[in-house]
Amino acid sequence: MSVTVKICGLTSADAVNAAVDGGAGLTGFVFFPPSPRFLAPVAAAGLARLVPEGVLKVGLVVDADDGFIEAILAAVPLDLLQLHGKESPERVAAVKARFGLPVMKAVAISGRADLRAVRAYEAVADRLLFDAMPPKDATRPGGNALTFDWTVLNGRAWDRPWMLAGGLDAGNVAEAVRISGATAVDVSSGVEDAPGVKNIEKIKAFLAAARPEASRAD
User: Fold this and answer.
1) What are the tens digits of pLDDT across the range 68-108?
2) Which of 2, 79, 89, 193 would give a disulfide with 56, using CB separation of 3.0 to 4.6 Å?
């Protein structure tokens, strides 16, 4: 099975190049100031220029207002907006209509009951992302190196393409894909030495683990 990989929280040219050269299908840039992976739009614009045609550039925002999103898009040519906060289905629809870009909505999962919220987002989002529920004292909704019970996704069918996130790394991504049935995965903390500090070798290892067929072909 072919697995698409998104490397999120990219903050350096070396990390972007490692993601692209390793075969990532999506690159992620974080526009959430409390995050150690936060980028100002001007910095993200420089990194986005390194991403070739065919690899999607994703902008992650958290409960952002229209003015903030507009400022990002004025500087950075994004292909996809990732809404990773508590945005309602109505807000997702409004963002998509206002900015004319596909939208991916993150849904926090701690157990099977959290999947009830998904159907409302299917009607308005272009993609879904299932991430681990953050701790109550967390300062950010994702990138916390936490997993969740992947079996809750096994055998489930959704009307939109979806990605698995939350605590993935080179050592567990193959198992996560096998258990959840995911065909796309998203990693950030699992390819870092410290929050916001990407490790090039870990990026390469993750891509090889998630895409073993591609690695053998290389």
Assistant:
1) 999 999 999 999 999 999 999 999 999 999 999 999 999 99
2) 79
Which one of the listed residues 8, 14, 65, 193 is annotated catalytic?
8
The CB density around residue 215, as the number of other CB atoms within 10 Å, is 14
How does DSSP assign 4-42, residue by residue?
EEEE----SHHHHHHHHHTT-SEEEEE--TTSTTB--HH
- 75-85: per-residue pLDDT in tens? 999 999 999 99
Range of 173's domain? Answer: 4-217
Nearest to 199 by CA among 165, 167, 170: 170
pTM beyond 0.85: the answer is yes
Tell me, what CATH number does 71's domain have?
Answer: 3.20.20.70
Contact between 165 and 148 (Cβ < 8 Å): no
186 is catalytic: no
> Any catalytic annotation for residue 126?
no
- Integer Cα distance of 180 and 185 in angstroms: 11
179 CA to centre of own chain: 19
What's the domain count of the chain? 1
Q: Which of 131, 186, 193, 218 is catalytic?
A: 131
